[in-house]
Prior knowledge:
Layout: H1 3-12, H2 17-46, H3 64-82, H4 87-106, H5 113-121, H6 123-132, H7 137-158, H8 162-168, H9 173-176, H10 181-202, H11 208-224, H12 230-239, H13 241-254
Helix pairs in contact: 1-2, 1-6, 1-13, 2-3, 2-4, 4-5, 4-6, 5-7, 7-10, 7-12, 10-11, 11-13
Amino acid sequence: MLLWPCFLGLAISNGNLWDYLIFFIGTLAMRSAGCIINDIADQDFDRQVNRTKTRPLASKQLTTSQALMATIFFLCISLVAWFFLNTNAKYISLIGVLLMVIYPFTKRFINWPQLFLGITFNFGLIVAVTHSGTLTLSILILFLSLVGWTIFYDTIYAFADIQDDLKIGIKSTAIVMQQFPKTYLTICNVLIHIILLTFLRTEGLICIIPITAGFFYLQTLLFKWKIENPQCCTETFSKCHFWGLGLWLWIVLTL
Length: 255
């Protein structure tokens, strides 16, 4: 989910193979560090959620100190990749690190933590474009579409834990949308592709194929999604990443 925004940024700004390698390594390391930071922050909550109670920290298979050591290890790998960024991208990427640290705590205070997650998860697009090209208004439009994509897939994911979250007081868009989730997410899907259409037209790219295919792919997942089934929520969430993969491949082949 973090990789495709980075690759999209590189495809749009003509990044080379070396750039792809840097962002591949950096994304994997930062994603790992972010997951650990999230589990450190949420370990007390995770013990009360059926799906997450067996996670290493929640089940006390690991100590917080051990988790912090693992975080430092992955951050060191990220630092190696960071040194290969240009100066502007280095500074911009620090904002992404700050967002990653803040995100786990948003679930305690705001009803739309998935919006904050969308900004965090897709910030790699901004970093990648800053590294290998120029940040423009059209890139920010694409960024908004990707934020909508994250809200879409992570709301589905959040439904896997909605009953536990309601009991322990964790906030999410799943709770906000619980009365009519498929209706709200259909609206979200429409907005994602309207914004994406605006980006593609700004870039002078053929629009009908990715817009139609992307919309119907997410809508098909939504149609097949069994809201009451936590495993189906997780599987549907996982399949959403193909939308990002497809968009990246289409842009690579078109540009």
